[in-house]
Amino acid sequence: xxxxxxxxxxxxxxxxxxxxxxxxxxxxxxxxxxxxxxxxxxxxxxxxxxxxxxxxxxxxxxxxxxxxxxxxxxxxxxxxxxxxxxxxxxxxxxxxxxxxxxxxxxxxxxxxxxxxxxxxxxx
Length: 123
Fold this sequence. Notes:
Shape: globular
Order of helices and strands: HEEEEEEEH
Number of strands: 7
Structural class: mainly beta
Protein backbone atom coordinates (compact mmCIF):
# COMPACT_ATOMS: atom_id res chain seq x y z
CA UNK A 1 0.00 0.00 0.00
CA UNK A 2 1.28 3.48 -0.87
CA UNK A 3 1.86 6.27 1.60
CA UNK A 4 -0.63 9.12 1.83
CA UNK A 5 0.90 12.34 0.46
CA UNK A 6 -0.19 15.94 0.11
CA UNK A 7 0.89 17.45 -3.22
CA UNK A 8 -0.02 20.91 -1.87
CA UNK A 9 2.25 20.53 1.15
CA UNK A 10 5.12 19.08 -0.88
CA UNK A 11 4.91 21.87 -3.47
CA UNK A 12 4.82 24.50 -0.72
CA UNK A 13 7.98 23.05 0.83
CA UNK A 14 10.03 23.19 -2.39
CA UNK A 15 12.79 25.80 -2.41
CA UNK A 16 13.57 25.99 -6.15
CA UNK A 17 11.40 27.36 -8.93
CA UNK A 18 10.94 25.29 -12.10
CA UNK A 19 12.40 22.17 -10.50
CA UNK A 20 9.60 19.57 -10.52
CA UNK A 21 9.78 16.63 -8.15
CA UNK A 22 8.26 13.21 -8.66
CA UNK A 23 5.87 12.39 -5.79
CA UNK A 24 4.15 9.28 -7.17
CA UNK A 25 3.86 6.89 -10.11
CA UNK A 26 0.75 5.62 -11.85
CA UNK A 27 1.43 2.94 -14.47
CA UNK A 28 3.66 4.61 -17.08
CA UNK A 29 3.19 8.14 -15.69
CA UNK A 30 4.82 10.27 -13.03
CA UNK A 31 2.91 12.61 -10.75
CA UNK A 32 5.08 15.68 -10.13
CA UNK A 33 4.77 18.88 -8.13
CA UNK A 34 6.55 22.15 -8.75
CA UNK A 35 6.82 25.70 -7.50
CA UNK A 36 7.09 28.13 -10.42
CA UNK A 37 7.55 31.83 -11.01
CA UNK A 38 8.33 33.67 -14.23
CA UNK A 39 8.58 31.97 -17.61
CA UNK A 40 9.91 28.46 -18.33
CA UNK A 41 10.68 28.16 -22.08
CA UNK A 42 8.84 27.60 -25.33
CA UNK A 43 8.95 23.85 -25.95
CA UNK A 44 6.90 20.83 -26.96
CA UNK A 45 6.65 17.15 -26.16
CA UNK A 46 6.30 15.33 -29.47
CA UNK A 47 4.90 12.07 -28.05
CA UNK A 48 3.35 12.96 -24.70
CA UNK A 49 0.39 14.95 -23.39
CA UNK A 50 1.04 17.01 -20.24
CA UNK A 51 -1.56 17.71 -17.54
CA UNK A 52 -1.24 20.84 -15.39
CA UNK A 53 -3.33 21.12 -12.18
CA UNK A 54 -3.02 24.35 -10.20
CA UNK A 55 -2.62 23.78 -6.45
CA UNK A 56 -2.09 27.45 -5.54
CA UNK A 57 -1.92 30.66 -7.53
CA UNK A 58 -2.36 31.34 -11.22
CA UNK A 59 -0.64 30.00 -14.35
CA UNK A 60 -0.84 31.10 -17.97
CA UNK A 61 0.07 28.53 -20.59
CA UNK A 62 1.00 30.31 -23.79
CA UNK A 63 0.55 28.36 -27.00
CA UNK A 64 0.96 29.43 -30.59
CA UNK A 65 -2.82 29.28 -31.15
CA UNK A 66 -3.62 31.23 -27.95
CA UNK A 67 -3.21 31.11 -24.18
CA UNK A 68 -5.14 29.54 -21.33
CA UNK A 69 -5.37 31.05 -17.85
CA UNK A 70 -5.58 28.62 -14.94
CA UNK A 71 -6.47 29.35 -11.31
CA UNK A 72 -6.34 27.18 -8.20
CA UNK A 73 -8.22 23.91 -8.68
CA UNK A 74 -8.27 24.17 -12.48
CA UNK A 75 -6.45 21.90 -14.90
CA UNK A 76 -5.52 21.81 -18.55
CA UNK A 77 -3.96 19.20 -20.81
CA UNK A 78 -1.40 20.41 -23.34
CA UNK A 79 -1.71 17.95 -26.22
CA UNK A 80 1.39 16.21 -27.54
CA UNK A 81 3.23 18.21 -30.17
CA UNK A 82 1.81 21.60 -29.09
CA UNK A 83 4.48 24.24 -28.45
CA UNK A 84 3.81 25.91 -25.11
CA UNK A 85 5.37 28.13 -22.48
CA UNK A 86 4.11 28.12 -18.87
CA UNK A 87 4.22 31.56 -17.22
CA UNK A 88 3.49 32.53 -13.61
CA UNK A 89 3.53 36.27 -12.86
CA UNK A 90 3.51 35.42 -9.12
CA UNK A 91 4.59 32.21 -7.42
CA UNK A 92 2.36 29.29 -8.39
CA UNK A 93 2.27 25.69 -7.11
CA UNK A 94 1.22 22.99 -9.53
CA UNK A 95 0.89 19.29 -10.06
CA UNK A 96 1.85 17.67 -13.36
CA UNK A 97 0.91 14.29 -14.74
CA UNK A 98 3.25 13.15 -17.49
CA UNK A 99 4.36 9.90 -19.05
CA UNK A 100 7.72 8.74 -17.73
CA UNK A 101 9.29 9.42 -21.13
CA UNK A 102 8.45 13.16 -20.98
CA UNK A 103 11.51 15.41 -20.96
CA UNK A 104 11.21 18.43 -18.66
CA UNK A 105 11.56 21.08 -21.36
CA UNK A 106 10.93 18.75 -24.28
CA UNK A 107 12.92 19.66 -27.36
CA UNK A 108 14.67 22.65 -25.68
CA UNK A 109 17.52 22.71 -23.18
CA UNK A 110 17.96 25.79 -20.99
CA UNK A 111 19.33 26.69 -17.56
CA UNK A 112 15.92 25.72 -16.16
CA UNK A 113 15.92 22.22 -17.68
CA UNK A 114 15.97 19.47 -15.04
CA UNK A 115 17.02 15.90 -15.69
CA UNK A 116 14.87 12.98 -14.58
CA UNK A 117 17.47 12.19 -11.90
CA UNK A 118 17.02 15.70 -10.49
CA UNK A 119 13.25 15.30 -10.54
CA UNK A 120 13.48 11.97 -8.69
CA UNK A 121 15.54 13.42 -5.81
CA UNK A 122 13.87 13.06 -2.40
CA UNK A 123 11.91 16.10 -1.32
